[in-house]
Amino acid sequence: MIVTFKSKASGDLIYFKEVALKLLKLMGRDEKIPSALFTEDVATALAQLQQGLAAMAETEREKVAQTEDAAGNGQSGAGKAYVSLNVRALPLVEMLQKAQKKQCPVQWE
Asked: Is it the case that residue 77 has pLDDT exceeding 70?
């Protein structure tokens, strides 16, 4: 399933449901789809998302280090490129920043 984030402040963003639910949880929202943020809630959601992503960054760095150590010991992964949640969240962070600046709500469906 795909979740689309929409705001008049920027273009639409499309995420797979699994990633979208993680981002919503970091924003302090429930997993209800469709739903929305009122204009006055955007700043709080943005701050919570940024704090959650910062906390996750350290954990992800540790995972990458462990993966590199395992690869150095002759163990190889499946060859899949790993894209962190921090990287995936950047467009949503930018959308929330624009929505906050332009005083627009954000919805997802």
From this structure: no
